[in-house]
Design a protein that fits this description.
- By secondary structure, the protein is of the alpha+beta class.
- The chain is 32% helix and 29% strand.
- It contains ten helices and 21 strands.
- Helix 4 crosses helix 10 and helix 6 packs across helix 7.
- The longest helix is centred in the last third of the chain and has 22 residues.
- The chain binds zinc ion.
């Protein structure tokens, strides 16, 4: 049913169009034409004006073809991580890789190629389907920026699938929410050899705080990290300021809150520990903390329609979907937070975000077959 050579040609075309975050115009133009050829009405939102990009998020609306059903949504992203200028896709023994100098961009172009092939098959074989909406976001790889600025009024679907994770026959229902934490510590500068008694070390304060902090794997659904630290001027100066950046993630919003509060508390306690009298005045390092919610958690119920539809479609064609938990944020977190039930399906891409990235044509065909089955069953 799936035309593997057409699918491979489509993927090769997509991979060869460079689309770094915020510079997706060439790919957007191609997709606009491609989706129109397949019968969609294509529009863009104005996200680029808010995020400083070349083009907004693409929305393709395919009217129903012979089946009255609620609209079904597919979500993908146009951009790829760098290095991605001048990708030369190489097909050898049924597996696509890049020439080695760049990523391949199977993340997320494998998913785009699979969806296009599935739509081709439905059209060619006149298989009835309900209305389909497709969103291809921009700037996903730099913090879900396109999705965070997406104009949701352009959509009517209430459930759907993001085609954007590794593996085949794999489905993600849950992913953590995350906070980013920015810390500025300010102590007192002094000559480290001549007048150390006048100083209050920001580096020592940071060290105390981080040493007492629970980091890494906190429990089966919570993680935390301090990922950046910078400060100090010279060996002979007691450092006045240090800045740090960290994050906390959890599948449980209460635990996310608790871990974030714990990290803040460690900095405040460390500052108190460092407090002492200098020239008759009690001095304490100042702590400035900024917590920014990065993305909300993704939580789809096991008995949701979006799950049972995929399970039934897979069963019909002899595939067996395995449910996994995600470890990070993706556009699906944002869609779910907007009330759209969305799970993530594996697209066969492997070793993503490296120059060894690859995808097998047979795996893309396997996923495309599942997409056909999902669309024909959606009611
Ligand atoms: Zn991706």
């Amino acid at each position: 049913m799936i035309n593997q050579s057409r699918l491979a040609d489509e993927f090769a075309k997509l991979a060869a169009i460079s689309s770094p975050p915020l510079r997706e115009k060439a790919l957007a133009d191609y997709l606009e034409g491609r989706f129109r050829t397949l019968g969609a009405e294509v529009v863009f939102d104005n996200a680029q004006e808010k995020i400083g990009g070349q083009v907004g998020n693409l929305i393709a609306r395919f009217p129903a073809a012979g089946l009255a059903a609620a609209p079904l949504l597919f979500s993908l992203h146009m951009d790829t991580v760098e290095p991605c200028e001048g990708v030369v896709p190489v097909l050898k023994d049924g597996i696509f890789t890049s020439g080695g100098e760049t990523v391949l961009g199977a993340d997320d172009k494998a998913g785009i190629a699979e969806l296009i092939e599935a739509l081709e098959v439905l059209r060619e074989q006149r298989i009835p389907r309900g209305p389909v909406e497709v969103v291809v976001t921009v700037a996903e790889e730099i913090g879900l920026v396109g999705a965070k600025h997406f104009d949701f009024s352009l959509l009517s679907a209430e459930y759907g699938y993001a085609l954007d994770t590794v593996g085949v026959d794999s489905m993600v229902l849950r992913a953590p929410g995350a906070n980013r934490i920015f810390i500025e510590l300010t102590g007192r500068e002094a000559h480290a050899g001549v007048a150390p008694e006048l100083g209050l070390s920001a580096i020592q304060t940071a060290g105390l705080a981080v040493a007492r902090m629970r980091l890494g794997l906190i429990d089966h659904e919570t993680t935390a990290n301090i990922g950046k630290i910078a400060g100090g001027v010279a060996c002979n100066i007691i450092p006045r300021s240090v800045s740090l950046e960290g994050e906390a993630r959890s599948h449980d919003p209460v635990k996310l809150q608790t871990q974030t509060a714990h990290m803040i508390d460690c900095f405040e306690k460390a500052a108190e520990t460092m407090a002492r009298e200098i020239e008759g005045v009690m001095c304490q390092p100042q702590v400035y903390i900024d917590v920014r919610p990065d993305y909300p958690r993704m939580f789809v119920e096991e008995n949701a329609k979006v799950v049972s539809l995929a399970m039934a479609a897979a069963e019909e064609i002899g595939h067996c979907l395995e449910v996994r938990r995600g470890g990070g944020g993706s556009d699906a977190n944002i869609f779910n937070a907007q009330g759209i039930d969305m799970v993530i399906l594996g697209t066969g891409m492997q070793d993503v975000h490296t120059t060894q990235e690859s995808v097998a044509v047979a795996d893309m065909a396997h996923v495309a077959e599942l997409l056909v089955a999902i669309m024909r069953r959606a009611a």
